[in-house]
Write the structure tokens for this entry.
Amino acid sequence: MILLYQLRKCPWAAAVRQTLANVEQDYGVIQVPYRRSDRHDIRAMTGQELTPVLVDGDVIVNESRAAVAYLYETYGDSRQHERAQELRDEIKATAAAVGGKG
Ligand SMILES: N[C@@H](CCC(=O)N[C@@H](CS)C(=O)NCC(=O)O)C(=O)O
């Protein structure tokens, strides 16, 4: 079963929930503790404390755009596969921009 670790009212988690609805996948929600230092599950799985985190079997994805891209690639139709590719390109561009700052 797909699990979504999230904080209440998180807009990025809402984007992942909308994507799960778009690809018609059932999922469970795990609300993470408000305090970052209490998010032991997230830290153990991803090495960081930000939510959302999507878990689909052995696949663990943190960062909402990466989670949306994963869902569209895995469960989407051809139009959604194209959207996934656009997101992957955006993620790469962001990483290059952030990396270029140093
Ligand atoms: N770029 C990240 C942003 C994630 C993010 O900032 N999540 C917030 C919740 S909406 C969070 O975990 N904040 C940690 C905190 O407030 O302690 C993504 O898109 O997933």
